[in-house]
Amino acid sequence: MITVGDFNQAEEIYNRLLENICSDDDRIHIYHQLGLLSAGQDQYTDAATFYEKSLEIKQKTLPEDHLSLATSYNNLGGVYQKKGEYLKAHEFYEKALQIKMKTVDANDLACATSYNNIGSVYYDMADYSKTIELYNKALQIFETHLPRNHPSVATSYSNLGGVYYKISDYPMARKFYETAHKIFENVLLPNHTDLATSYSNIGRVYHKLDQYPKALELYEKALTILKIREKALHWNLTDLATYYNNIGTVYSDSGDLAKALEFHQNALKIREKALDPNHPNLASSYNNIGELYQQMSDHSKALEFYEKACEIREKSLPANHPDLATSYNNIGEVYQSMHRDDKALQSYQKALNIRETALPSNHPSLATSYNNMGQIFYIKREYQKALRFYKIACQILETASPTNSRDIAASYNNIGEVYYSVNNYCKALEFYKTACEIREKTLQPNHPTLAESYNNIGVVYNDIGDYQNALEFFKKSHKIREKTLCQNDPNLADSYSTIGEISKDLGDYTLALEYYVKALEIRGNALSPNHLDLATSYSGIGHVYNNMADYPKALEFYRKALELREANLPADNKDLATSYNNIASHYHAMGNYEKAHNAVLKAFKIQQKNFPEGHQDFASTYNLFGKIYRSMKDYSRALHYFKECLMIFQQPELKTHPSRAITYSNIGDVIQLMGHYEMAFSFHRKALKIQDNTQYNSLESSMIYTNLGETCREMKDYSTAITYLQRALQIRENKLPKNHPDLAVTYHSLAKSYIATRQYDMAMKNAQQAVDIAKEKLPSNHPHLLEYRNTSEQLRDLMNAF
Question: How far does the signal peptide extend, from start to end residue (predicted)?
């Protein structure tokens, strides 16, 4: 009955026999068979009870080193292993081995079986070096006593392949799996299930190596064998579900989620028909489908299937079983995706509590739990807590996995993110680069995760002002995404956007606009009209137009970004601060200082709620305050804010940032306006010296040259003033549109210097150019236009008098 799968009838017969017999041998046998029955139906607690009853009789009637006792200990070890009670399983397997060592030769085949059993427990406990040691012992015995083509030898090779697969040593895993496969091909019938398993094992390796077509080919071979078996042995139907799951996972990882869902649903249908409603394998199917819906961002569906899986596991498994922890973990991930961080934390904590109790301290699943806890604290901006959990996760992985593990790379990446968020760019770069080096060794050259690493490194270089290195890494990331993503993928838009930003920072506004527009086109086609990534695009395009002095266009895009963010974000979100700063920058350029001040004040109040004192995001806000107060001729306040800005750029990791030089020059400009010319000159020279040691936008150096020229003019060193101003003019004429207001500033400064040296014709030429640009680009009441006109009128009076 057991052999043909009729467990209920077999159990009924054994229970009747038990009532009518009194022989110890018979009772031992029947309890043993009832244990087998219960285990076959995944009723492991009942199985343990029956095996223990059988063992109890044996202990009373047999010598303590009888081999039959070893069989009972093995059976109990197997049941406790299934229950996730690995220490108990290990204890029973060890007892079985000790009996065998006393009664048979140490190299007997019976000992090899025990080594395999104990090795499998160490595998479950993630002690992979111990597992390899024991599996090798078993293999040596099998190779000594059995023909080289014996199935048990093949199984040993396969076991070793499984360990190397687990520790991500895929070349070694493939080597052992393929050695096993050759033996199976020689000794088994073409449609044997072990051959199907062998194809599947090799397929898993190719799957991990991202060779999806090869993996699918091998999984399909395995599936073909199972389908033939299905026709002959209907009770083996559930094995088909496993292979449907494998194929579904390949489609999932290769991005074909619809095809993946089809295969996982086929697996589910088989299991729903063939299994008890509370069978753990049914939970696995619900879990797989939940995972797919999670990838598809259908969080409510994902939660529905994850909760079904969890409900089965809560009913069928012990309270501290690792699979139950997996369910809580998955539910936590959905809540995290739904931004229900407190619910996510609650689920993650449940998973962690089980894993801390049930698993050894260096188990990779514990690392997953610590990592997830870290993610929630990172989202909640509790960075020290996040860092503590991330570091614990990393320490576990460093102990349990090889140094080139993808999981370790992800862990280093997470730690890098925390350091980046607290402005520790040196540390962020260190961890991002370590993660990237591992990924370069373990992933295909065009793997999307590698693109993510390159992008992260580029972001750090960008923030510390190393624009050339930033551009290099952004382009590496973009190259991968162009090859691997479809044309309307939002991740490709992100890539265009980052290159647009760096091009803007380098002063190449035409190229920046081209990339920003490409990003907007993709986002417009791929995203909903209220998606916040659209606001990022509007903001970037607004920046370029503002820098190119197309102020109406700049305001149009800045307002689009602001409206989208105000409609979809909390009032204190940091991205709103960015929008208010952009609007402030526009109003400042247009000479509306009151509106500019109101906007930057809004930004500042939001940033105070989001960032610690000294955070880099405050720098742009302090800089704007300084510019606005300078334009309003409130020089003491302007100086205060420029100094606050400088304090941020004095932090060690920002000392090479190009904005540090500009900030020194801004301070020098205010000091010059306050009449302290020598001191102002020293600040401008300091700014130039800093630029000698940094990568900078040449337009920024033109501003420093303009400030130096104006200071030299006030010091009555007119020839030096004109030299600096001509340098500034040359840069601006090469880099800016001919009607840019920054050109007007330099023309006007030159006009005033030429007036001082009585070169009135040159002065009039430059003054008129300044007025013409200002009339075209600025409002009629703009202070700059009024000043330029006043200079021009004074110059006419001087020329008439002359």
Answer: none
The whole-number pLDDT of residue 54 equals 83
User: What is the torsion angle, in degrees rounded to the nearest 10, for the CA atoms of residue 581, residue 583, residue 585 and residue 590?
Assistant: -160
Question: Residues 230, 236: contact at Cβ < 8 Å?
Answer: yes
Longest dimension (CA), the chain: 136
Per-residue pLDDT of 317-358, as tens digits, reads: 888 888 999 999 999 999 999 989 999 999 999 999 999 988
Please tell me whether residues 369 and 448 are part of one structural domain: yes
Sequence-distant (6+) residues with CB within 8 A of 178 are 202
CA 376 vs. chain centroid, Å, equals 13
421 and 514 co-located in one domain: no
* pLDDT digits 0-9 by tens, 212-271: 999 999 999 998 988 887 776 554 567 788 889 999 999 998 888 999 999 999 999 999
Residue 245's pLDDT is what? 92
Cα separation, 505 vs 547, in Å, equals 10
Distance CA 204, CA 201 (A): 5
Compute the distance between CA of residue 92 and CA of residue 113 in angstroms, rounded to an integer.
14
Domain membership flag for residue 728: no
The residue among 528, 558, 588 that closes a domain is 558
Domain count within the chain: 2
* DSSP letter for each residue of 521-570: HHHHHHS-TT-HHHHHHHHHHHHHHHHTT-HHHHHHHHHHHHHHHHHHS-
Residue 171 predicted with pLDDT over 80: yes
Domain closes at, from 558, 576, 599: 558
For residue 536, being part of any structural domain is answered with: yes
276 CB-near residues (< 8 Å, 6+ apart): 41, 42, 282
As a whole number of angstroms, the distance between CA 166 and CA 160 comes to: 10
Is 186 within the bounds of a domain?
Answer: no
**pTM for this predicted structure:** 0.68
- Section 735-745 average pLDDT: 90
